[in-house]
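Below is how a single chain appears once it has passed through the pipeline. First comes the sequence as given, then the structure the pipeline wrote out for it. We keep one example in the README because the format questions we get most often are answered faster by looking than by reading.
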Amino acid sequence: MKTLAKWSVVQYHQMIKAQILNDQSVELLAGEIVEMSTESPLHYNTAKRGVRYLEDLLKGKAEVRFNGAITLADSEPEPDIAIVRLPESSGLGRKYNTHLKSLKPLC
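Resulting structure:
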């Protein structure tokens, strides 16, 4: 399959804001908008249990994120589980918190 166009994260966010991608399960991966399969209850519950385990294991050492988008240079994947540095430990706390405040819900 050939890629007809590569999309930037900014363009992807514009499509979301314009509601072009409503009712579609997609992610931006390496500049391509990729259709994702829907999540089964078993998959969700297994990932959620994994998150609880990792949160206990990594408390105070890292942040464990669940089913959230991660914005990268040319992608915005939505991994089931992501382990990331605590904002305070990376020196990015203020930038991180500002980014969270600027996010608006889609509905």
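The beta strands are 26-29, 32-35, 63-66, 81-84.

See the next section for the split statistics.
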